[in-house]
Amino acid sequence: MKLSLTKVVNGCRLGKIKNLGKTGDHTMDIPGCLLYTKTGSAPHLTHHTLHNIHGVPAMAQLTLSSLAEHHEVLTEYKEGVGKFIGMPESLLYCSLHDPVSPCPAGYVTNKSVSVWSVAGRVEMTVSKFMAIQKALQPDWFQCLSDGEVSCKEATSIKRVRKSVDRSLLFLDNCLRLQEESETLALSSRLECSGAISTQRSLLLLGSSDSPTSASRVTGTTGACCHTRLIFVFLVEMGFHSVGQAGLELLTSSDPPASASCWDYRHEPPCLVLQKSVIIGVIEGGDVMEERLRSARETAKRPVGGFLLDGFQGNPTTLEARLRLLSSVTAELPEDKPRLISGVSRPDEVLECIERGVDLFESFFPYQVTERGCALTFSFDYQPNPEETLLQQNGTQEEIKCMDQIKKIETTGCNQEITSFEINLKEKKYQEDFNPLVRGCSCYCCKNHTRAYIHHLLVTNELLAGVLLMMHNFEHYFGFFHYIREALKSDKLAQLKELIHRQAS
Amino acid sequence: MAGAATQASLESAPRIMRLVAECSRSRARAGELWLPHGTVATPVFMPVGTQATMKGITTEQLDALGCRICLGNTYHLGLRPGPELIQKANGLHGFMNWPHNLLTDSGGFQMVSLVSLSEVTEEGVRFRSPYDGNETLLSPEKSVQIQNALGSDIIMQLDDVVSSTVTGPRVEEAMYRSIRWLDRCIAAHQRPDKQNLFAIIQGGLDADLRATCLEEMTKRDVPGFAIGGLSGGESKSQFWRMVALSTSRLPKDKPRYLMGVGYATDLVVCVALGCDMFDCVFPTRTAVRLWQKERFGSALVPTGNLQLRKKVFEKDFGPIDPECTCPTCQKHSRAFLHALLHSDNTAALHHLTVHNIAYQLQLMSAVRTSIVEKRFPDFVRDFMGAMYGDPTLCPTWATDALASVGITLG
Q: Quick one: which of A313, A333, A500 has its CA closest to A321?
């Protein structure tokens, strides 16, 4: 994969990540977000309703906490979690925990990390963790890490140091295991095919875009020159880095009788397998020194990207941590993506983008849905002047009611209703035949009214969650689109100001 | 009796049903209902969307499955959100954004199911609302008034419903009262050109009472008839005999709606007995009972149903039904649904609702095609074979019912 930046303005990175996915032809925009899922499915949504949504991100987030318990099933399934969940076309990122459900502290040891599933606690050593990832076959996965420091307050420096040490140790062990298993798989397959005898330093260089150079080097295998099958082997033990020229590791569990009989017009039986990319995790709590150490050390490893862990919490804690965040991203290489866990609110997203973060989780729209609310915040920093007036009036009215209600409501998600949303359970929506958001092109706004959603919520009907989720996801993905547009046209300040006005 | 039509007006009253084919052996018919929101092929299964929603599936999904008529419930909608609001929203069609046909029941069935909250008099049914404790009187006039506001294509008379397990004079009282209430409904109906009022044949499990009801109600100029008071706790043997009696006395050129019947075997048998329309909460409720005490997660298949939460499906990588063309079966395996059902993601239920509705609709479609292609008796034999392993292993009541209309199994 390749990250290319179009521009960097005020610390914000605008760009694309290319050559993603098993076949290397997916692209992701940054800044961007990942589709939040629960047990491999967008909450409340089937394939049909998910595809009603415009702007669904190319990459979905899976959580190990919901999938680890299905390890055995996935191993037997063999074809990876993407196909299992019915999302074979999507890029997949596997995080350890579910950002919405807090996990109890006290379950990380020097040898293992636990995740919490419906069935209970699943303890994972490095080898179990890697075995699970092997069964899942995600495109990216968060490395096993010790993120417990963020669960508690006032953690000792000793504990923080330990979280950094442990996470680095886990990372090194995971990298080692990954390499070992690949080398093993590769040499056994090459031997089986009879096309190549195992050579320690077999080296074939080529670009995935130029058949001529490939044909020059593939003579030993007799394989064809189809661009997809251009492969580069770096079998030498201990060789870590994977070059940028579209290197792919080709393996097949059903090797052809001889490579030259392979009909390159059809995909080989068990495909080109890009290895899953490990995302290194930056820990260090609230201790600057440890944060820097974690960043520097993790950056030395051949990870595909970085996860900034431990910045989650309520809005005030993030504020305090923003300085740490800047310092951390300053230590990270520019050409690898930076993800952050536990941050999803629109105002916080902007703060983090300004400090060098590229990718976010999209659990905020889910939380809004669960409390029967709809996202209504405006992100169109360049609306037409008439609209602005109307919207402002609307917003003010809503803010007035917001203040009253914010004091009373505490929701099932243990979060207060924010000023980015409206609460459809309120009686005033009973006869409101407007869409959730005027001008929104989502399925819900094009087909239904606030009054209808209100009715569904009052009568406890499941469709409420479906329709709200469709709207909230679309609204949220639209927000990210506007962030990228604002960066493109140097209008981020306007967008930021607009969001801030609504964040009171 | 006051509402009885003259022979002349009965003959000239518009027919909403067109017969396309009839089975030469049994009483099965294939037809078309011509309704304000489009044509509906019969026999038809109508999914129940009690509170202006089909559980967790969107109207677009329902349309994509081929559904062209579904049910709303007057009792529930009359209380929440109420007929005035729905009228402001352009009727139930506008409120829930459903472009095809709707049938609303009268609210009467809830009398039986919520009997502790109600009291029946000649005036109507007195309810105490479970939501705000207010007392409401649901009279024939009020029921029709609410249904007029809802704007459904087919509306049902308010009938005096008595559980089929009740015997004695109450059954007779309810039967005669239902006739009087039918006449009051006809008189109160403000929109006969836009909404089709169906009568509901009562009489419990008493052949004489039912015959009397049939004789009287068929004198009324209504566009269709429902067979009510069954699908309760009665034995299947009594059940089918009452259905057969009813269809033998109902006019051929008007639709017969058998209320509350939805299990596959019952559907097939009752089509043979001459019924055209069916409804049941079973396919959607059985998918959705996850959030209530009974944790079903049940998927309908030609051999019965699969309890997908059970461990046996953990590693079953095939679809629910390899012959089914619904989106769930196209995209997902039993194993994935099993895993999803054990999570708290409601999507699991929606996948099952889609499949179960598809199953019912596909079944009716197959039944209809077999009637049109003049091979309905063979279809019945194949169906029973798939369901019970062998056509001769079909339950006795079904065998008897089918035999009574000329279809032998095995």
A: A313
